[in-house]
Amino acid sequence: MRPFLLLSIRAEQAAADDELAAFSRFLGVGHDGHDDPHGPAGPDGSGGLVRLRLGVDDVEVGPGWLDRWSGVVLGGGAFTVSDDEATKSRAQLRAERDLGPVLDAVVEADFPFLGACYGIGTLGRHQGGLVDRSHPEPVGPLAVTLTDAGLADPLFEGVPRDFAAYGGHKEAMTRLPGHAVRLATSAACPVQAFRVGRNVYATQFHPELDLVGLHTRIDTYATFGYFDPAEAATLRDAGSAVDVRHPMTLLRNFAALHRR
């Protein structure tokens, strides 16, 4: 069985490790604690989840590269694609440079891909949509609504039209490219999920994020400009007051649909 690949932009160790564990848990695949993009993960050596750190690890997308994986997931983090190029760090510029060939290959092959938060900005911009700071949302619980297309999409099988998720972002999709399909929305953010082709997805909310993970990210990113650090305890309480159970279904469905 081929492993899934997690592309990670997180340099903050606690958040990066929590993200890896969450994707592994909710995809239902193992991870052996080592990042090895050249081999399988998991104790049986036959599948699992491999992490590759964008901006740190080398990414060489050549012929047959996609054949190594069952699917590719892209996590979130502190990078913002709509930032002025002159303000972006070397790590961010390298990550964006390396993501270009990945997205080229994924879209051309209609290969299984799911990008979370940062993924909606990168895929949206790659496909010609408008990503800007017009529709930010505070860190914490979000009320998400599926479109009719989302209700009919196999990635959202078992998810009700209205559900709670965790998120928090400075930028968002303001305008989808014409060939994309909007799958979910919210009152504050017009595009919470979309699809290109049949198998290439992105969500603004975090399908891997549970309450423990939310608390970890509030603590980790308290000084990154997402919120006033004095509000951290209030944000943790707000997250604890909401039952978030449905977004993880996307990851279970993604793995079930594409494991090979």
TrEMBL record:
SUPFAM superfamilies: Class I glutamine amidotransferase-like. Residues 102-210 form the Glutamine amidotransferase domain. It comes from the Bacteria. This is Glutamine amidotransferase domain-containing protein. It comes from Nocardioides marinquilinus. Transmembrane segments: none annotated. PROSITE patterns: GATASE_TYPE_1. The lineage of its organism: Bacteria, Bacillati, Actinomycetota, Actinomycetes, Propionibacteriales.
